[in-house]
Here is the input.
Amino acid sequence: MSDETLLRIAILIAGLFVVGAIVFFGRPRKPGQGRRLPRDGQGEDARREPTLGEQMESGLAESGTPVGEATTQAELELFDRTLDGSAGGELGRRVSDEFDKIVTLYLAARAGEKLHGPDIVVAAEKAGLVYGYMGVFHRLVEQQSDRGPVFSVANIMKPGNFDMANIQELETPAIAFFLTLPAPVSALDAWETMLPTAERMAELLGGIVLDEQRNNLGRQRIGHIREELRAYDRQREAPSLTRPARW
Here is the structure.
């Protein structure tokens, strides 16, 4: 099997992880899932949290394209194009295609609204991101861009990238922040870089930061993620501490 074939398979597998998350957004929630009970003095007219599945279904329904089919095919096409780096150059390309964990956050527009391309570009620049590989934004290690991205930011709508030639017309219900591990820094340090960036961009864009289950990202969930990543870092260090003794 040629090196090119192996690379294509590796990138396709990586794409399927992102595809799974995107397709998940296209499925409607079960009744009552993720809903908060109204507080005293609040009823059904209280402000709703954004439901990305509904927004994506609505947008794709207008084009007559099934949600799952559109997102899956578009993502596979995007990852296929990245084989030759044609979707944005090499800046932000991972040093290795091997990974064992992905941590995802979403920055969503509020209900009934959209995020607009020019605003996303300005917010990304203010948050210290650079545009590059796969046509998406990346956070790089300062003065060490050759080590690959700490995390990346993609569009959840097909084909997943940000087409600068048509950025004025771009509208999307949300963008995805994804941290692919191992990263050029520790998992916890990468998270502590990604979270403030997502929060800063949410502030600039008037959006809301959601977790991987598209629920509001609260302190408890943040704490759980930090513990998971501490455990991941410890596990990565463990082999060097528990090597079998030589006989």
About this structure: The longest strand covers residues 101-108. The domain at 3-29+48-239 is CATH 3.30.1400.10 (Cell Division Protein Zipa; Chain: A,). Residues 3-25 form the longest helix (23 residues).
